[in-house]
Known about the structure:
The chain is α/β, with parallel strands linked by helices. It contains 9 helices and 8 strands.
Amino acid sequence: MKRKPVVTIDGPAGAGKSTISRQLAERLCFKYLDTGALYRAVAYSLIRKGYSGDEKDLVCLSRNLSVGLKNMAGQLHVFVDAEDVTGKIRTEEIGILASKVSAVPAIREALLSIQRDAAAGGGIVAEGRDMGTVIFPEAEIKFFLDASVIERAKRRYLELTEKGELTSLREVECDLIFRDRQDCERAVAPLRVPRDATIIDSTDKTIPQVIDIMLGIVENRWSHPQRRKN
């Protein structure tokens, strides 16, 4: 039987990667790997340990990390020690700290094998900031999902307010601009468009429209692997 491909979806915060990756994985009957959740789990652990904001404490507090993935009913859940934190790591505070810790080489190295092990054998949609450039450079199919800052801020603002979090659209936009700069300018694995990725701007597209575009590309290249972009 033909090996199922590894599909990567990179892009900036708020571009819709999580929602689209999850639904694309469901349509393909693939596993969904939210690698950003691993860094959020590290951030969650740091905050729980009393992280004060001093960057010198990052490596010290992150020693002996106990972060992992567990396949539960076809879904990958994120654990810190024995605690399932999958639904507890979606705050703005954790998101901003996650972007910072993802630039720490020791933390990235600690999480690298977890991510690659999850994709062993293919049949996975992996989303994050450096999936197609660093983690899975040989992935068969790569996408870079983007959207305007204003559109991304609107989406994130609605998501947060639906969860009952008090914030403003302007505050969310400023946070996204800060995270974009942090992700693009970091010395280790900065946000970049993978060399052979298909770029999709979702600013004026619905989620179903983006998924349909991706499905067409995946199915075409899965059936004709020689058509991979060079």
